């Protein structure tokens, strides 16, 4: 013990140096947005690789539970498909003229969960797919049961997802039967319970009613299941319902997810941003005018090129006709009679 104390006293300047370095780094990454972003991006790649190895081991240990959940999800899907067939047959019998069903198509990228927290206020999920796989922030994340969350941050090969179990998460949703909409929020506590706010009091809400996405956001298509209503209560101001919802996604055993990659519409987002912030209208209109001007210039250049090619074709055609006419043989017969020339073509 005496030797340890002597060692610390002898090298105290090094310990003071290391302490000051740690304090300076904490202040640097805590109060500077750019450095903090670089730190998170770099840390995602380093820590993500370690999490990937750990996830492979834990995934193998949870295969039995995962298979059980998949079988339960398949059974639920079979029931829903059967119910939809029954409803479709009823509609076909009762309707004289029907609109054709239109299916919404969107692409998804499968990914594995390599790290996750569920007991904090700001929980996050790390997945092993990133920008190299076409994933960008603000893309929706789902699994076989329902909605999981939204992509928050990406690096080259990993992404951070903000799940429904985050106090900052707010998903636009609706009641499947009545189609009244509200907002899904989480208030800590349970990993399978969330709440729907802003549902009007005159909405015919019932227990065990399905809560799903309404398609109002530019992240999730409409109709994706989120959960089922457990309890119906009043909001603090008494002006709307406050619904307790049991989530379909089983976060404690979450291993496989899918990221929706092509549902977002840049044109729609730009238009909505213009409506919310009129100051952006001038810059957007200027960029649109520039794009229109560039398109007109391209069209003009293409027309000029086509005209040059046409003139060149006419010139070559005339030259060939001239050469052909001059190379035609002619026969001249001379005798005592006046000269006569027979041209043979």
Polypeptide structure, described:
The protein is α+β, with helices and mostly antiparallel strands. It contains six helices and 14 strands. The strands form three sheets. Strands 1-2-5-4-3-12 form a six-stranded antiparallel β-barrel. Strand 6 (171-175) and strand 7 form a beta hairpin. It is extended and about 115 Å long.
Keywords summarizing the entry:
single chain; 345 residues; alpha+beta; 6-stranded antiparallel beta barrel; extended; disordered C terminus
> Which structural category do the helix and sheet elements fall into?
alpha+beta
Distance between the first and last residues' Cα: 122 Å
Helix content: 40-55%
* Strands, count: 14
What does the overall shape look like?
extended
The low-confidence parts are 93-104, 330-345
Characterize the quaternary organization of these chains: single chain
How are the strands of the largest sheet arranged? 1-2-5-4-3-12
What fraction of residues sit in β-strands? 15-25%
User: What is the succession of H and E elements?
Assistant: HHHHEEEEEEEEEEEEHHEE
Enumerate how many helices there are, as a single number.
6
Q: Average pLDDT across residues?
A: 79
Strand count, sense and barrel status of the largest sheet are: 6 strands, antiparallel, barrel
Walk me through the topology.
Blueprint: H1 2-10, H2 12-31, H3 33-61, H4 63-94, E1 108-116, E2 125-127, E3 140-142, E4 147-154, E5 159-163, E6 171-175, E7 181-185, E8 193-200, E9 210-213, E10 225-234, E11 240-247, E12 256-260, H5 266-276, H6 279-326, E13 331-333, E14 340-342
Antiparallel strand pairs: 1-2, 1-12, 2-5, 3-4, 3-12, 4-5, 6-7, 6-9, 7-8, 8-11, 9-10, 10-11, 13-14
Helix pairs in contact: 2-3, 5-6
